[in-house]
Structures are given as C-alpha cells and as structure tokens.
Amino acid sequence: MSQPEKLYEGKAKILYATDNPEILLTVYKDDATAFNAQKRGQIKGKGQINCQITAALFTWLGLMDIPTHYIDTPEPNQMRVKAVTIIPIEVVVRNIAAGSLCRQTGLPEGKVLPSALVEYYYKSDELGDPLLTRDRIFLMNIITSQRLEEIENMARKINKNLQSFFDKCDITLVDFKLEFGLDAQQNLLLADEISPDTCRLWDKNDVDPQSRVMDKDRFRKDLGQVEAAYQQVQQRVLAQLKNS
Ligand code: TMP
Ligand code: ASP
C-alpha cells in the first residue's frame, strides 16, 4: 500500500485513507484528554485496549442487528471501518445519574433513572460540546426529525443490548456516548468507539464510589490505577464475547 494519507487527527484517534475509498483506517492512540483537552496525559496501552474493546462491542452489537461501521482490526490498535459522514451530534445515554447530569440538575450521583435518558450534544470543540434541544437541532439543520427518531430508537436498542452485555461482565453501564454516521447510500451506522473513554462503567460487586470506577473518570478525577481498570474491562468484555 502507498503511504497512507492522514485525513484527521483527533484527541484519541487518527484517521487514514486506504487504497479503497469506501474503507478508512483508524489508529487508536494512548493519548488521553479530559475537560475539552484542558487536561492531557497518556494511558499506557490504551490505544490497543480501546480498539479491542470497541471491536468486541461492535461485533456483539452487529450480531444484535445494529449496523456499525466496524470491519476488522488488522493490528491491535488499528481498526478498518466503512467510510461514513459523521453526524455532528454526540448522543449520550444515561441509566444512572453521574457527571454533568448531576452537576447541572443537582440529582445525586448513583440515582437510578426511571428510564434511560437520551441526550444530544453538539460535536464542536470550539463551542465546548453544548447540550442541544430538538428544536436547536432542527434550527441548525443538522438532521431531520425522522433521522433523529431513527437515532433515538437505535441508541435505546444499543443501550438495552450493552446493559445486558456489561451486566454479564459484572459491570454496571452508568452512561455512555455514541456517534453515528451515514454511508454513501445514506444508511445510518453506529460509528466511532465504545470504550472506557466513552462510557461510565462501575464494578457491580464494589459499592465504594472510587474503587468501583473502571473508566476514564479514573483519569479525569486522578483516582490512579487507570491502566489496570482499562485492562480489567478489556479482559471481562473479551471473555464475555467468547461466551456469547
Ligand atoms: P458527561 O456526564 O460528562 O456529560 O458524560 C456523559 C458520558 O459521555 C460519559 O460516559 C462520558 C462520555 N463523554 C464522552 O465520551 N466524550 C465527551 O467529550 C464527554 C464530555 C463525555
Ligand atoms: N473527550 C473530552 C476531552 O477530551 C472530554 C472528556 O472525555 O472528559 O476533552
């Protein structure tokens, strides 16, 4: 293959073109950022771990009839994906109150929500990923109401499947962020990643509010043992995929 063309470098991944215009290569980095890149660091081995966890979860979701952009992993930290146009909305699904939901509403951390909350944030580093309303989404002409409904339904279906998958890993899925893309035929595909960088994951058998944390909050809040937590998630997810 000729020297790959770098299309985009984000905070956690680099996107390259391949010889096939319908396929892109994502390289997962060990770099970690938080609070819109105000905090920066590295999590050793994170690139490989997040790539493997994403591959496993996208494979599982594919088996559950959820279309994803995932193709395969030619190297431990490299993922081949179908080329899509990313919709500039971060879809956050919450089962338990944590993070910005607690800060913005006063709900106590750990409160189980009566039903899953689906929220939309505008994917813009410049604007700090602000919370969107449905009307703002339509005002900004990002997507149609029909497409938004399709996204919400898919996000809820993904949540149901991920909740039961993580439950079998003895992990509570607190909340997570999804991104969606459109392929050349305008089909909606789950894209980007699902990993401890983009989820809140609590060890089901641990009630201690600090030691139960198995996700990027360990890095955000300087809780230590970040690598060990990511490795533990990887081990449990890969073992569960094998068993399912
Ligand atoms: P929040 O509570 O900070 O709004 O985060 C909700 C979920 O979204 C949490 O699982 C972490 C994830 N997330 C991202 O993946 N990227 C982001 O930039 C932010 C702010 C959150
Ligand atoms: N991913 C975002 C950042 O880099 C925010 C976060 O995950 O906390 O800054």
Compact overview of the structure:
This protein is of the alpha+beta class and about 240 residues long. About 30% of the residues lie in helices and about 30% in strands.
CATH architecture of the largest domain: 2-Layer Sandwich
Written as H for each helix and E for each strand, in order along the chain, the element string is EEEEEHEEEEHEHHEEEHH
- What is the third-level CATH name, the topology of the largest domain? D-amino Acid Aminotransferase, Chain A, domain 1
Name of the level-1 CATH class of the largest domain: Alpha Beta
Q: Which distinct ligands sit in these coordinates?
A: thymidine-5'-phosphate, aspartic acid
What is the terminal separation in angstroms? 36 Å
Low-pLDDT runs: none
Helix content, binned percent: 25-40%
- The whole-angstrom Rg is 17 Å
Average pLDDT value? 97
What does this structure look like?
The protein has helices at 46-63, 99-105, 134-139, 145-168, 217-220, 226-243; strands spanning 6-9, 13-17, 23-28, 31-34, 39-42, 70-75, 78-82, 85-86, 89-96, 112-122, 171-182, 188-191, 199-203. It is α+β, with helices and mostly antiparallel strands and 244 residues long. The strands form three sheets. Strands 8, 9, 10, 11, 12 and 13 form a six-stranded antiparallel beta sheet that branches. The chain has a five-stranded antiparallel beta sheet with strand order 1-2-3-7-6, covered by helices on one side. Strands 4-5 form a two-stranded antiparallel sheet. Helix 1 packs parallel to helix 6. Aspartic acid binds at residues 11, 33-37, 216, 220. Aspartic acid is lined by residues 11, 33-37, 216, 220.
